[in-house]
Amino acid sequence: MSTSTMGTGGVPPADTTVDSPADAAAPAPRRPAPGAGDLHEPKKGMKGKLLLAGGVWIGGVVALVAIYGFKGTRNTSFEPQNEFKLDSWVHLGVFSINKAVLYLFIAAVATCVSMIWIARRMQERPNKVQAAVEALFVLMRDNIAGGGMEEKQAAKWFPFIGALFLFIFFSNLVGYIPLPTNTEHKIDVLGLHIPSFSLYAATANLSIPLVLALVVFFSYTYEGVRAKGPIGYLKGLIPGGVEGGMAVFIFFLELLSNLMRILSLTIRLFANILAGHLIILFMAGALAVILGVAWLGWFTIPFGIALFAFEVGLVAALQAFIFATLTAIYLGGAVAEDH
What we know:
The protein is mainly alpha-helical. Strand 1 (about 180-190) and strand 2 form a beta hairpin. It has helices spanning about 20-25, 40-70, 100-120, 130-150, 150-175, 205-230, 230-235, 245-290, 295-335; strands at about 180-190, 190-200.
């Protein structure tokens, strides 16, 4: 047996093949990481789902047009404004209980319970809920209260402004939860006549934003009179350097402007929430019911879902933020030297 093919003691010799310099310098091929070839699969999967949803949407419209026709008969009996009608459930005169009172109660309970529950469970290493609440706290303290008032005054009025912000925020959010509050249209469940589910917000009732605006108006007026006295507060309505007849004109203009703040706070909150609910109602099928067109109800559903997400995700918080921010600005302006 040749020694070139056998090593010592019959052990096969080591591989003595010498790689060329080019082979030695070439990097070893790498195996692809697990899932490396699937990087584009989620995008493809999402695109496929969107195409499928679009196909079902268009197919549904075509099918409804083929079955029920393109035109319909106008429905004169359905009145969408009745969704916001307040029927008294418990008759107590001016203290009667209706669905607006129910929504106010739910919002108040949600505001108190959620904040107390979270406050009693604060941890050194916050979880996601605590982190979100702390971010909200910083927003209310630094951006809303601290942005419109001096530090000392902001610390004094922060509980009021924070509670106002959270109450309006929860009132708006609760308004997007379907609850069985529509007593005009009832459903029969095992012989029980239960009110049908509907969307309603207490802040979509003019009286609620009006009361909140009046509370804000009397709060900053009290703060201004307390800081400057009655005469000083009224004089503060006139900017420095304005004298004579122009001062009288500016005084009445500023006085009217302060009264108009009640209207602006009220109508801004009321109109935005009411408009959002009406648009959702129409896009969710009310428009199809009024016109008697079956395919239109299916056609508007995606727009209704998008508007619902927009209202819940942005408008509910934005309106609370604007109301609370203006409150802080009015309180800060009431004690400023040049009011």
